[in-house]
Amino acid sequence: MIEMSKVEKWQLSDFYQSRREKIVALLLGELIFLKTHVKQIHCVTQQHQFQTGLEKIDYILGLLKKSEEELHEDTFDSIISLVYNILKEIVIELEKELGI
Question: How many whole angstroms separate alpha carbon 59 and alpha carbon 35?
Answer without folding.
Answer: 15
